[in-house]
Amino acid sequence: MSSHREAPEISKDPVADNSDVYAFVSPDAPSTVTLIANFIPMQNPMGGPNFFEFGDDVLYEIHVCNRGDGVPDVSYQFRFTTKIRDRSTFLYNTGPITHIADSTFNRPQTYTVSRKERGANPVVLRSGLTVPPVNVGIRSTPDYAHFTHEATHSLRGGRKVFAGQRADAFFADLGSIFDLGALRPFQNLHLIPSAAAAMGVNGLQGLNVHSIAIQVPKTDLTRGGANPSNPTSSLSVIGVYASASRQKTTVINRATGKREGHGPFTQVSRLGNPLFNEVIVPMARKDYWNTTAPSKDAQFAQYVTKPELAGLLPVLYPDVFPHLKAYTKPRADLAAILLTGIPSGVVSDFQNYTGSTQADLLRLNLAIPPAASPSPYGILGKDLAGFPNGRRVTDDIVAIELRAVAGATIALVDPSYTADGAAAVLVDGTSNTNSPLLKHFPYLGTPAGGYQSLPGTPAT
Questions:
Q1: Distances from the Cα of 23 to the Cαs of 162, 233, 348, in angstroms?
Q2: What dihedral angle (degrees, nearest 10) is formed by the CA atoms of 401, 403, 407, 409?
Q3: What pLDDT, in 10s, does the model give residues 175-227?
Q4: What digits encode the pLDDT tens for the residues 214-265?
Q5: What is the rounded distance in angstroms from the CA atom of residue 49 to the CA atom of residue 47?
Q6: Global pTM value
């Protein structure tokens, strides 16, 4: 998974769990950048009567670094407030909800969004913004798609924001991958073989997340408010990550049965590049990683330059990766992709280098325009507007990172290396079989409805 259940402790606290981060130049508004952070992963659409919602006790943030030191220069902060309209009923809604403000929506949420610059106090951009209900079903939330428009709010400075339930855009064959690294299209070559399958099984199909999406002018994010036009300039590159924080002390109020936070906020979850904590950081250090700042990521560089998965692939797939097995040098290619950005001269006509500070950030070159014909394989598909140049909702992250770990990118920094043939074709065989993506903000698809969803049949 990208970061859906990536660490033991945060897996027990889904309301504060980052699942995916996206950062891309908006294809339908190319003077702006869209930043999306997803939380509360793997939501069963039928999860009533207490449906999924943002946490009132969580500080959600999307951070942008533009000085190359891994420290946030601009942060967008989100705080939520929940209200119960009718305290005498157990119902989430007491009738159909046709508009966000309907009184039949018994547990509405509102939020405040603030913008904080490095060294300054947060400035509130707008308060009292409404969150749509979750997609309960055809009777409770008919014509659910119109809530997307109702919950998209304008902010001063040419910004807009959305916060609410969406369909997960991440796709991966979780059942196969975590069964000793099997990839269904190639499982006939596995150490414990079975017949190859034409397709993988999307383990996220039909599941929802809660998204915070904000679209801002490029000048909102750059050093000195520059309007980037030169792809070779360091002023054109930003680094992005999201985080969730809780207050340090939690007390159970026996009078209400609720948890109450006290003291300063401390980070409990973060995410920049997809799959970083998931498959690179050892299990014993995952919880610690979630509490640290990206600027301190040099301590995790050893797991990037010698990734465990790269050592496992030749074992799990005997005779398929002989070149990868024989390669013993530190993985400078992965260090560039994940920790520093790609310097000029590695990929033709491209760079997203942020300097020598090693930090897990999504690095986006704002001077690279949206692709006319996007490739799901991003830069590996000769599409400079895709991952690892930021991340779009259409990028096939699992395939890209599988191929990179398997050695497809080593030759970019070490011309003496010849990649194994399998490295260029690795996939898990899945695609986004959730709700269709939108062509406009907030881009993620309409969430699956509780009534409309069908539970799977457990295998024997």
A1: 15, 19, 22
A2: -70
A3: 999 999 999 999 999 999 999 999 999 999 999 999 999 999 999 999 999 99
A4: 999 999 999 999 999 999 999 999 999 999 999 999 899 999 888 889 999 9
A5: 7
A6: 0.97
